[in-house]
Design a protein that fits this description.
It contains five helices and ten strands; from the N terminus they run αααααββββββββββ. The protein folds into two domains: about 1-60, Orthogonal Bundle (434 Repressor (Amino-terminal Domain)), CATH 1.10.260.40; about 85-205, Umud Fragment, subunit A (Ribbon), CATH 2.10.109.10. Strands 1, 2, 3, 4, 5, 6, 7, 8, 9 and 10 form a ten-stranded mixed sheet that branches. The chain is elongated, with a radius of gyration of 21 Å. Mean pLDDT is about 85; it is low at about 65-70. Helix content is about 20%, strand content about 30%. A hairpin with an 8-residue loop joins strand 8 (about 175) and strand 9. Helix 2 (about 15-25) crosses helix 3 (about 30-35). It has about 210 residues and is an alpha+beta fold.
């Protein structure tokens, strides 16, 4: 039930009813009525609560997902059912060309397979990763980790700028390599390495349908 789910989520975050009410811009008494089952939120408030806790709206409202049970067993091989999704924050734009200012303001929430270990996403800008099939406007999903293996694609912070590149490491040197022969490697050595911080590994991306 919604009331039980809301109370569970609030306690998991160690939030008081007042703190949750302040975050949502509603009164503490309203939160209390929600948790006691004496009142149901409207759709807009329900969405705001789901976004705040980064959960699916159906899960928050206690709705069972009957979609998978209705999928026929004889689907063609080229049809892939939509997986159960979770929401993660989309944190602005990351450069796929020259690094751009990294802003960590949440633009919105985007859906990703609930089994994915990505916890945030970034929108790509530029064409430096096109041979990896990552294009301008695509959304890349990031699993936070402080290091990656050589040749893996990562979101990398360079000072206050973020970029998406393949990472290659050597003693006292890090090379950030684009996936487009039109761009040169970004090479950092010695003291310059203090400017480099790996935000996480790119584990997936989604693209829009392009006509050309």
């Amino acid at each position: 039930m919604f009331s039980e789910e809301l109370k569970k989520l609030r306690k998991q975050r160690s939030l008081t009813q007042q703190k949750l009410a302040d975050a949502l811009g509603i009164s503490k008494s309203t939160i209390s009525m929600y948790e006691n089952g004496n009142r149901e939120p409207d759709f807009e408030t329900s969405e705001a609560i789901a976004d705040y806790f980064n959960v699916r709206l159906d899960d928050l409202l206690g709705r069972k997902n009957s979609f998978s049970s209705n999928i026929p067993n004889n689907l063609p091989n080229n049809i892939i059912p939509i997986p159960k999704m979770k929401k993660i924050p989309l944190l602005g734009t990351i450069a796929c060309g020259e690094p751009i200012l990294a802003t960590e303001n949440i633009d919105c929430y985007v859906g990703v397979d609930e089994n994915s270990d990505a916890t945030f996403a970034l929108r790509c800008k530029g064409d430096s990763m096109i041979t990896a099939r990552i294009f301008d406007g695509d959304v890349v999903y990031i699993r936070p980790q402080p290091d990656v293996e050589n040749g893996e694609i990562a979101a990398v912070l360079i000072g206050n700028d973020a970029t998406l590149k393949k990472v290659y490491k050597a003693p006292n040197k890090v090379t950030l390599s684009p996936c487009n022969p039109m761009y040169s490697d970004l090479v950092y050595t010695d003291e310059q390495l203090n400017e480099i911080k790996i935000l996480g590994k790119a584990v997936a991306f989604t693209s829009v349908i392009r006509n050309s």
